[in-house]
Amino acid sequence: MAIYGLDIGGTKIETAIFDHELNMMKSWRIDTPTQNYQVFLDTVLKLVKQADDYTSERGNIGIGMPGLITPDGRALSANIPCVTGKYIEEDLATLLSRPIALENDTRCFALSEAISGAGKGHARVFGAIIGTGAAGGFCHNGQLEVTAQGFAGEYGHIPLPADIQAQYQLPVLKCGCGLMACVESYIAGPGISRLYQHFNGETITPKEWGIRLKQNEGDAQQVLACYLDILGATFATLAKFLEPDVIVLGGGVSLVDEIVNNLSPAIEKYLFSGFRAPLLKRALHGDSSGVRGAALLGSTINDRTTVLSKSKASIY
Ligand SMILES: [Zn+2]
């Protein structure tokens, strides 16, 4: 049985077709329709039809998407506004006339890296993406930890520690999630620009910050020190609850050597004396971790309890 992985992002949808041993046979990308729910659904339907035509089968489907499903079954996604408030899992399953596995995209990333990526061989793997946002997922013995409400792994919404806020006199920012001082506002890509602006006054891109860091500019160094304190304290908090063997890093920030190479001591600064930080590794599959993780979930579709429920379907 073929398996289709769909990684639906805020700008692109990547679709990949895998065989039953999870070898990727074909993949392609198109733009994500983000403003019209009907167009969004039609696009996913078309992609699955293309995959069915390619394989001459009705493959199992796993979908990764940014956002959450609220306890009443409705989607909440800042990156894809048209799905917010919709019963997307039921609507897609009805439309595609087969059950689907739908999961947060960073949880798909974590699963992919735990099973066949940088976390392979470790029992407790936390996958953390730091890009335009900061989110992750936890896998234990090759299984994604699935929780009742699905928000476990949202370390980006741990609050900024008071001592770090005071030390650097940081502004207390309102997060896109509605809460105050979530670390995502400081550690994700846009957060680097905010930190630089705080210390220097100038607004620059994270890439420009990287250039100034290599030139040993004082304010750029100050941003790095502050950044490492925030991310170190955040991962130390995560370690105190989950104690992962390894944290697998993905997203643009994970490519910055000055952050990755100095992160272990930054974590240990906020752990108990003499205890070690989890291993830190860069993701192995890079951009294709999303479709791979979605397909891994799709491959277990028969074990899942996705139920077609007309009564819950959105009116579209
Ligand atoms: Zn938040």
Which labels suit this protein?
about 325 residues; alpha/beta; Nucleotidyltransferase, domain 5; five-stranded mixed β-sheet; globular; disordered C terminus; binds zinc ion
Structure explained in plain terms:
There is one protein chain. The chain is an alpha/beta fold and 316 residues long. The chain folds into 2 domains: 3-107 and 289-312, Nucleotidyltransferase, domain 5; 120-283, ATPase, nucleotide binding domain (Nucleotidyltransferase, domain 5, 2-Layer Sandwich), CATH 3.30.420.40. Helices cover 37% and strands 19% of the residues. The protein has 11 helices and 12 strands. Strands 3-2-1-4-7 form a 5-stranded mixed β-sheet. Helix 3 crosses helix 11. It binds zinc ion. Zinc ion binds next to loops. The site of zinc ion has 6 residues, from loops.
